[in-house]
């Protein structure tokens, strides 16, 4: 199976890029791992036009056919699992275990899930309604049916922190519903998405149903959003970029699904199991070096447990092996780029300037002479108005803010522009659930950072628009039509 990742994938063909290529760099070694194609604006428009041309036939395919193609694609990705894992690890900087389980493994699982999803009923019966005679006609009993239809051409703009799970989580449900797609991967690690496209093509996806375009700058992404052939944009990334995309979508009345930034509050009540809380909060240090929007980065702890929690978190961070992500012993790998490392370091410096105390970390790991590494960092003595508390850092940095009672803790948690996923730790589960319902977030973890992959995922406030995951993703990539008839 060939993977011509130096070419664009448009209309079922591997196409030479009009604007040349750019280098994809391994964040751990700073070595070039491949060349990605640089699409012109015209080529992105060609991809959207190909998706538009393919939509009528694809949208009318039997659900069983779409399911079979998605299942075959999962089989093909599984066949080349090790090769895909190596590429994902090299281009994203993820640890070997993360690349295997959370990247390629989750990508396969999502194709399987939406193979089943293609077979889920697209019709929902509405209870009959009795209408009195009036201006609208005679009295009668009226039946109704809600029917989900594909939206049309969907642009999928994906994030760099998971080059398999994030694109698969958009492409698979969109295809299952009968949409066609234009995929614009993050510029830092696009090679995996071309491998995904190759698997889909080999699985039998018709020409034009899946198209992949890439670019190192903003041009390709802008074209993928503003093309007149695009009906919907599904975006994962920063709130700032999401706002700009939303403005373009608003002018064209395009549907949107936005999964944006987060500053997850971890509310640690006085009766919490601190070992559990530390293990959960510690994932900010360890899981993909904190480059995850759902991370519990903003720790709000009852003042009576503050010192104990800070000590335990510092010890946890110090115990984590930082280094080469290809080494199975490594827990913390690099961040995605030199520019992002500098950004994270600038936030830590800003925290110091504002009065935060660096408990651990705050410097580059001394034993590594190359790679974009940031040591797991814990900031204490923080106040609610500090930038490190209010803004998304997207790195292995945890900030700690104390509170004196439950009311204050809830108020601090909700005092944020973000509202993606928050967390509550308490030894009283009923209390934890009561607190969870008061948090203005799209999701809340109670005594866990785990996820239920059928539960709706999305954010309140500036953390996003819409919900996906599980069957909610099928609804997100659907338009709903009402059909009414007299009984």
From TrEMBL:
InterPro entries: Ald_DH/histidinol_DH, Ald_DH_C, Ald_DH_N, Aldehyde_DH_dom. Keywords: Oxidoreductase. The keyword Calcium does not apply. GO terms for molecular function: oxidoreductase activity, acting on the aldehyde or oxo group of donors, NAD or NADP as acceptor. Pfam families: Aldedh. Signal peptide: none annotated. Residues 14-483 form the Aldehyde dehydrogenase domain. The keyword Glycosyltransferase does not apply. Belongs to the aldehyde dehydrogenase family. This is Aldehyde dehydrogenase. It comes from Streptomyces griseus subsp. griseus (strain JCM 4626 / CBS 651.72 / NBRC 13350 / KCC S-0626 / ISP 5235).
């Amino acid at each position: 199976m060939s993977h011509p990742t130096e070419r664009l994938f448009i209309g079922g063909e591997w196409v030479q890029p009009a604007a040349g290529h750019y280098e994809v760099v391994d964040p751990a070694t700073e070595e070039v791992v491949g060349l990605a194609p640089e699409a012109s604006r015209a080529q992105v428009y060609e991809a959207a036009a190909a998706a538009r041309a393919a939509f009528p036939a694809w949208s009318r395919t039997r659900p069983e056919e779409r399911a079979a193609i998605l299942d075959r694609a999962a089989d093909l990705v599984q066949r080349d699992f090790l090769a895909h894992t190596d590429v994902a690890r090299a281009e994203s900087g993820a640890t070997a275990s993360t690349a295997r389980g959370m990247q390629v493994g989750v990508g396969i699982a999502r194709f399987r899930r939406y193979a089943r999803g293609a077979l889920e009923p697209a019709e929902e019966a509405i209870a009959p309604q009795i209408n009195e005679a009036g201006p609208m006609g005679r009295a009668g009993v009226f039946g109704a049916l809600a029917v989900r239809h594909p939206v049309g051409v969907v642009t999928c703009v994906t994030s760099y922190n998971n080059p398999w799970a994030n694109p698969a989580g958009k492409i698979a449900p969109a295809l299952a519903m009968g949409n066609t797609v234009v995929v614009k991967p993050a510029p830092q690690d696009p090679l995996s998405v071309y491998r995904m496209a190759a698997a889909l093509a080999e699985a039998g996806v018709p020409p034009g149903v899946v198209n992949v375009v890439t670019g190192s700058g903003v041009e390709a992404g802008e074209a993928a959003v503003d093309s007149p052939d695009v009906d919907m944009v599904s975006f994962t990334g920063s709130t700032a970029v999401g706002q700009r995309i939303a403005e373009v979508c608003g002018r064209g009345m395009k549907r949107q699904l936005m999964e944006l930034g987060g500053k997850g509050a971890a509310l640690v009540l006085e009766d919490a199991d601190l070992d559990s809380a530390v293990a959960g909060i510690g994932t900010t240090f360890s899981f993909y070096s904190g480059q995850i929007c759902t991370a519990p980065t903003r720790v709000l702890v009852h003042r009576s447990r503050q010192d104990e929690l800070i000590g335990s978190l510092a010890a946890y961070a110090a115990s984590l092996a930082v280094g080469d992500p290809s080494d199975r012993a490594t827990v913390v790998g690099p961040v995605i780029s030199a520019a992002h490392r500098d950004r994270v370091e600038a936030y830590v410096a800003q925290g110091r300037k504002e009065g935060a105390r660096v408990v651990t970390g705050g410097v580059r790991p001394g034993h590594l002479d190359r790679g974009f590494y940031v040591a797991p960092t814990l900031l204490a003595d923080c106040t609610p108005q500090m930038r490190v508390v209010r803004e998304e850092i997207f790195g292995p940095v945890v900030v700690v803010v104390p509170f004196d009672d439950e009311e204050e803790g809830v108020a601090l948690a909700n005092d944020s522009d973000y509202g993606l996923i928050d967390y509550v730790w308490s030894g009283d589960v009923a209390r934890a659930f009561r607190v969870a319902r008061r948090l203005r977030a799209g999701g809340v973890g109670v005594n866990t950072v785990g996820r239920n992959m059928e539960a709706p995922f999305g954010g309140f406030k500036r953390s996003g628009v819409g919900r996906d995951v599980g069957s909610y993703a099928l609804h997100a990539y659907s338009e709903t039509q009402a059909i009414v008839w007299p009984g």
